[in-house]
């Protein structure tokens, strides 16, 4: 019930519809209980040779009852099933909104396919439980209470005999419910694994083709599917025992009724009409009794799904919550780093170890170093993708964790080495950072990142759809589109994390020159492996094993016999060799 209460508040906006549906359902059940009673009255009248008008009157009542029951059944189907689908939409919207508030730590712990499965398959199970499941429970309760009340009224002694086999149902219920719950949990988790595998294979389809791994993946997928079938068959076998057992118990009750009730009719203890009505109510009980198995299935599936969805809704961003509310911060771009030490979650190794660095607003700094030196880690801490220890990272003299993440990121342009493009047009991908940007501003950014020559080769120019993850454009074009997206925001801090890796040196130089002329006063942080770029920035920081090895202007570092000078010399020699070989 703890998990059910979480979803009850989604019903509140539709309480009027649910109330109407509940009234219609109760009316359907009550009219259904009246029909056998009318038939009882007619059967008891027949020996007395009733008048034709009396029989027509009862026929009219039966017809009216059938019409009312039909209309009421339409009412509960509309007003109970309808809200369940609306609740599904509301929960999905809330879930998607919550997804967007979670940080990178959460997504590192969960597979995307599993999250997709929870947002689709599990949500559908919740909808079925909140709609059909609760409806069946209410229907069963009303019918059981109504039928037993009328059966007791007709013949209490016969009702007592009929109740004798019913405790078996309780034994069956508590015997099977635990096993059913475990099997549902296993099925939902296996379905998540299937969804994850499909998503992963579709994303990495080019790698599979390149390494000719299609057959291996087909075999893996076949094993997962067969495992899924086996788990579902195990659940089906469980219900294959449970449901017939319930029907068998009802059959025993019917046998008792025919045996004892038949003798009472012969003895004249009860009338034939009462005996027929009693059996009609007993048969009406067969549906709610069999529905117990169906409800258990919906219940366990729904609660399992609720538990899995609740796990997401309970997850919170690990970022330190700022004391101030989100507002448009006035950021200049001064960065002060003092004793910065950072380790990734579940990893004791220090990605950064005692970094001390001051970066004045409007300056440009290049970060170089071997792979794993901590360059990208440092870049990710500035827009609060992860949180550093409080006080170790200041922006304009204020602790970074005191600035709300969304307010901070509005002033930061971030371009990664492998940028993500959405499956829409180039124009929309660029305007993502600033939807209100005009066509002139977008075109100016296109010129700034030297993308105009490429667009001339595209038949639809800026309105060319790039495909999922930018599959239809090259790596260099993808990086430049992402760069234009970051620049159109006119950020106070621009972070380029190896954002020129897919570009040639000449294009890189043109773009950097355009950036410096188009946006002034911006603090620019560049992670690069090309030291030719280091000559165009104000300062260079050399990182190694999470520590600062050297820092200073290019000319000063070249005067020292250090890491920077050795790397620069090696790259210069390699470049000269390439020119000679050409």
UniProtKB/TrEMBL annotation:
> Which InterPro entries does the protein's record reference?
AAA+_ATPase, ABC1_TM_dom, ABC1_TM_sf, ABC_transporter-like_ATP-bd, ABC_transporter-like_CS, P-loop_NTPase, Type_1_exporter
Q: Which residues form the ABC transmembrane type-1 domain?
A: 19-301
* ABC transporter domain boundaries: 335-570
Membrane listed as a keyword: yes
Q: Which domain of life is it from?
A: Bacteria
Keywords in alphabetical order: ATP-binding, Membrane, Nucleotide-binding, Transmembrane, Transmembrane helix
Family matches, as Pfam families: ABC_membrane, ABC_tran
Q: Which residues cross the membrane?
A: 18-38, 58-76, 129-154, 160-180, 239-261, 281-299
Show the PROSITE patterns listed in the entry: ABC_TM1F, ABC_TRANSPORTER_1, ABC_TRANSPORTER_2
| Membrane topology according to the record | Multi-pass membrane protein
Compartments in which it is found? Cell membrane
Q: What is its main location?
A: membrane
This protein's name = ABC transporter, ATPase subunit
């Amino acid at each position: 019930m703890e998990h059910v209460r979480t979803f009850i508040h989604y019903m509140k906006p539709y309480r009027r519809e649910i109330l109407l549906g509940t009234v219609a359902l109760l009316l359907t059940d009550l009219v259904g209980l009246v029909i056998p009673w009318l038939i009882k009255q007619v059967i008891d009248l027949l020996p007395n040779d009733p008048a034709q008008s009396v029989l027509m009157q009862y026929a009219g009542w039966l017809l009216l009852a059938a019409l009312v029951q039909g209309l009421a059944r339409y009412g509960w189907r509309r007003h109970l099933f309808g809200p369940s689908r609306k609740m599904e939409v509301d929960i999905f919207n809330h879930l998607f909104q919550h997804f967007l508030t979670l940080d990178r730590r959460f997504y590192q712990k969960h597979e995307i396919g599993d999250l997709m499965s929870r947002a689709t398959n599990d949500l559908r199970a919740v909808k079925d439980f909140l709609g059909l499941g609760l409806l069946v429970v209410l229907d069963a309760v009303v019918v059981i209470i109504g039928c037993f009340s009328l059966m007791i009224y007709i013949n209490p002694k016969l009702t007592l005999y009929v109740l004798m086999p019913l405790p078996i149902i309780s034994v069956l219920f508590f015997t099977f419910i635990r096993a059913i719950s475990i099997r549902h949990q296993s099925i939902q988790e296996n379905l998540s694994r299937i969804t994850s595998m499909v998503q992963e294979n579709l994303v990495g389809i080019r790698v599979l083709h390149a390494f000719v791994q299609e057959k291996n993946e087909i075999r893996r997928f076949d094993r997962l599917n067969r495992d899924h079938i086996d788990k579902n068959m195990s659940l089906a076998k469980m219900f294959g025992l449970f449901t017939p057992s319930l029907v068998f118990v009802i059959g025993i009750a019917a046998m008792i009724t025919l045996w004892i009730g038949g003798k009472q009719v012969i003895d004249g203890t009860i009338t034939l009409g009462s005996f027929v009505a009693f059996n009609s109510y007993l048969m009406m009980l067969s549906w709610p009794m069999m529905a117990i198995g169906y409800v258990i299935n919906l219940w366990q599936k729904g609660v399992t799904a609720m538990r899995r969805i609740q796990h997401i809704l309970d997850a919170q961003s690990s970022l330190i919550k700022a004391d101030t509310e989100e507002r448009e911060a006035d950021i200049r771009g001064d960065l002060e780093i003092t004793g910065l030490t950072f380790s990734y979650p579940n990893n004791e190794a220090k990605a950064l170890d005692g970094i001390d660095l001051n970066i004045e607003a409007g300056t440009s700094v290049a970060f170089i170093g071997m792979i794993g030196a901590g360059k990208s880690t440092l870049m990710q801490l500035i827009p609060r993708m992860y949180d550093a220890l409080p006080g170790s990272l200041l922006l304009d003299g204020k602790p970074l964790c005191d600035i709300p993440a969304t307010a901070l990121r509005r002033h930061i342009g971030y371009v990664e080495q492998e940028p993500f493009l959405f499956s829409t047009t180039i124009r929309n991908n660029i305007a993502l950072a600033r939807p209100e940007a005009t066509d002139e501003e977008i075109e100016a950014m296109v010129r700034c990142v030297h993308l105009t020559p490429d667009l001339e080769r595209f038949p639809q120019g800026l309105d060319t759809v790039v495909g999922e993850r930018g599959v239809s454009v090259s790596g260099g074009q993808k990086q430049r589109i992402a760069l234009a997206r970051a620049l159109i925001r006119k950020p106070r801090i621009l972070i380029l994390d190896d954002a020129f890796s897919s570009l040639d040196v000449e294009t890189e130089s043109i773009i950097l020159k355009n950036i410096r002329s188009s946006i002034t006063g911006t603090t620019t942080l560049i992670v690069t492996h090309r030291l030719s770029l280091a000559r165009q920035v104000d300062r260079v920081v050399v990182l190694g094993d999470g520590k600062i090895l050297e820092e200073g202007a290019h000319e000063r570092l070249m005067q020292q016999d250090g890491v920077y000078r050795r790397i620069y010399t090696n790259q210069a020699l390699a470049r000269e060799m390439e020119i000679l070989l050409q």
